[in-house]
UniProtKB/TrEMBL annotation:
Protein name: Bacterial RNA polymerase, alpha chain C terminal domain
Superkingdom: Bacteria
Alphabetical list of SUPFAM superfamilies matching this protein: C-terminal domain of RNA polymerase alpha subunit
GO biological process terms on file: DNA-templated transcription
GO molecular function (one): DNA binding
Pfam families: RNA_pol_A_CTD
Domain RNA polymerase alpha subunit C-terminal: 42-89
GO CC, alphabetical: DNA-directed RNA polymerase complex
Keywords assigned: DNA-directed RNA polymerase, Transcription
Amino acid sequence: MSRIKTKRTCPKGHHFYKSTDCPTCPICEKEKKTDGGFLEALSSPARNALLNHGVDDIEKLAQTSEAELLKLHGFGKASLPLLRQILQEHGLTFSR
């Protein structure tokens, strides 16, 4: 069963269609730049989930548990192995 897409306009004036109630503008998402770091390795939804949760550096990531991350809208289990590897490279692990 397919959902009906509705036309939306973001605060910047971009027009786009969405079939969910997610307010994220896909055009604005493509325009976002990262400063490099571990966030750049993630998909846009996972990156936004972390940023919206206040996780913007590796130390804050290490203070977060995997279970907490999986509860975030836009964050999926596919991102965990990559983040585990990044933490390990910095001598860190997820919080328990």
